[in-house]
Amino acid sequence: MDEIERADVAVAAAREGASVAADYFRTDVPVEMKDGKTDVVTRADREAQERVIETIRETFPDATVVGEEDDAPTVVPDDGPAFVVDPIDGTNNFVRDIPIWCTSVAAVVDGEPIAAATVVPPTGDEYIARDGETRFNGEPVTVSDRTDPQASTVCPTLWWGLDRRDEYAAAATGVVERFADLRRYGSAQVSFGYVASGALDGIFSNLQGNPWDTVAGAHLVRQAGGRVTDLEGEHWRHDSTGVVVSNGGIHDELLAVAREADAARE
Q1: Pairing status of strand 31-36 against strand 39-42
Q2: What is the pLDDT of residue 153?
């Protein structure tokens, strides 16, 4: 019953946070810089995270909540339950009025997700993983069944800093040489949702992602029948290096591209 309740809370919290963020979208909300010219934050991020945390703690007052903003813990505990929150994944899109961003919340136990919700206010879409399945707008979905890389579309995701553009270039080159086409959306969690629903065939990075950018999405894909590994092709965790996400049918080819990108930094 506790896992069911945690799943319910994750969904409710994602919806509440998304509602707060949506009220600020395409307004003149001030933009602040964090650690770089593309690492931005707004009042919407902070207030959405506050609402998510408030919603969680109405039911679990002592919950550990790992989040991107302010003084929230940034490491997923290996023992016990926690929630992982991204109040706005795709803030650069958000501040440019691009309608590809979301609020994501995952419930985890002993470092592994048990439920996840990604809410995309600009399109009205919801991706929810619980009870052994992923639902898109209330309907069960599965990953695509494509096995031919030359008929598959994939997305390099996460963010290569200005000092790591050789890796970014290698990732893009690997995609255009091996796959049908490339997409890049500016929101890792939305991209995970696209793979889970079969709209996209894979996403990848050689970087170690933040848990708020990855944990919920990884659960969405796995519960939809997809595969999520690290650069070694092993089970992906929140602290893994690299994340390779696919429908399973193109995974080996996508893994090769991720490794090529990683080799570019050496």
Answers
A1: antiparallel
A2: 98
